[in-house]
Amino acid sequence: MVEAPASLQEAATAWAEGEVANVELYDRLIASLPVFSYPNTVRVLNNLRSASLDAHLPAFQAAADGGGTLTPDEMQSLDLRNGGNGAGNSGGDDSGKGNRGGRGMRGQGGNCD
Fold first, then answer.
1. pLDDT tens digits, one per residue of 78-96
2. Domain total of the chain
3. Residues 73-109, buried b or exposed e (16+ Cβ, 10 A)?
4. I need a surface site. Which of 32, 38, 61, 112 has the fewest CB within 10 A?
């Protein structure tokens, strides 16, 4: 049985640590796949990696630093109200593509479409 964290701060800290582990997992998976054989899979993994690194991790770190919660102003400063960096969602440019290229392979940018 898994026990709930004793406080919101503990929960936020645990989730921040989990996001670091997620980024490491995505890095290993991406490195293990030949990009030309599995371009769609690599694109999805890059998008997930970007969401963890650029949106989820900063939010959980900020929450942990703030006692476990974020105020609306803090969320706004992290641009969390409208999907963060657009990874995995429709983004903010009305193109419907969002941040489909993520940070690109190994953070080198570029759209994978």
1. 876 555 544 443 333 333 3
2. 1
3. eebeebbbeebbbbbbeebeeeeeebbbbbbebeeee
4. 32
**Residues in CB range of 101: below 8 A, 6 or more apart:** 43, 46, 109, 110, 111, 112, 113
Retrieve residue 42's tokens.
């690599």
Residue at 113 is within a domain: no
Torsion of CA 87, 33, 39, 23, to 10 degrees: 0
Give a yes or no: residue 42 inside a domain. yes
- C-alpha distances (whole Å) from 20 to each of 49, 82, 86 are 10, 23, 19
| Residue-wise pLDDT tens digits, 22-75 | 999 999 999 999 989 999 999 999 999 999 999 999 999 999 999 999 999 998
